[in-house]
Design a protein that fits this description.
It holds the Pfam family BCCIP. The protein has 249 residues and is of the alpha+beta class. It has one domain. The protein contains seven helices and ten strands. Strand 4, helix 5 and strand 5 form a beta-alpha-beta unit.
Length: 249
């Protein structure tokens, strides 16, 4: 399929992204002025050549994708090993979070469940998410799946703590919650429409990375929040993303 341009309010939400210093003054004496970056994004179906660029988004050419969104049918592909592993892993995590029954009801229900994959390079603005989701739903005709399952990346600040033996380790500041914030800004609004949600840590968590801020004793612990959205909420979700992530909001 050829490239598709989005000629609607969706495209407007991906343009005129404002970048400004939070301490800048609007007066004539200010050394800072708001910069408007006018950007046009093209939306198109992925091609086989895009595989490596999406698998390892590091070096990009002019025609490489900078963001992608797709859905995997967990029912059609239920016999594939990777889907079996994802299902088993999530059920184990959901059970630990007290949501095992809720997740099982969704996965074993009469309708199909779609695993929603949403990724982009670090500097891509979240304004591209609403038009990508709108076009994806248009292609799916909003009837293919009863539920959409999203594994939203999250993180939690960890503080350095001195153990009894004098060694230093990092532990979550707040034991009541697994997350402090979402990695992707849009997931905060997607959560509003989730019928089922639960947090989980990685079974094989990587070493906590050092946080790049002025607090030398602070690190970041990655985690995930599983969000399950019913198909009846998708249109309202798209409208919410367009409103919340528009440059003027």
């Amino acid at each position: 399929m050829g490239r598709k341009r989005q000629h609607s309010d969706d495209e407007a939400s991906t343009r005129d992204i404002e970048n400004s210093d939070s301490g800048a003054s609007s007066g004539p004496e200010s050394d800072f002025e708001k910069d408007l970056v006018d950007v046009d994004f093209e939306f198109f179906d992925p091609k086989p050549i895009d595989f490596h660029a999406m698998k390892a988004p590091t070096d990009f050419g002019d025609d490489d994708p900078y963001a992608f969104m797709t859905v995997l049918n967990m029912d059609v592909h239920k016999d594939k090993q990777v889907i079996k592993q994802i299902r088993e892993y999530l059920l184990k995590k959901a059970e630990k979070a007290g949501k095992g029954g809720d997740l099982l009801d969704v996965l074993d229900g009469s309708g199909d469940v779609g695993l929603l994959l949403n990724e982009r390079v670090v500097n891509m603005p979240p304004q591209v998410v609403a038009p990508m989701l709108a076009m994806l739903m248009e292609e799916l005709d909003r009837t293919t799946f009863d539920y959409y399952l999203l594994l939203a990346p999250t993180y939690k600040d960890t503080a350095a703590v001195e153990d009894e033996d004098g060694s230093s380790s990092r532990r979550p500041k707040d034991k009541e919650s697994l997350i402090d914030a979402y990695l992707h800004a849009e997931d905060e609004f997607i959560e509003e429409f989730a019928q089922v949600k639960f947090d989980y840590k990685f079974s094989r968590s990587k070493r906590v990375s050092e946080s790049r801020n002025s607090f030398a004793e602070t690190g970041v612990a990655p985690a995930r929040r599983c969000l399950i959205i019913h198909k009846s909420k998708i249109r309202a979700l798209i409208d919410r993303l367009q409103s919340a992530l528009s440059p003027s909001s």
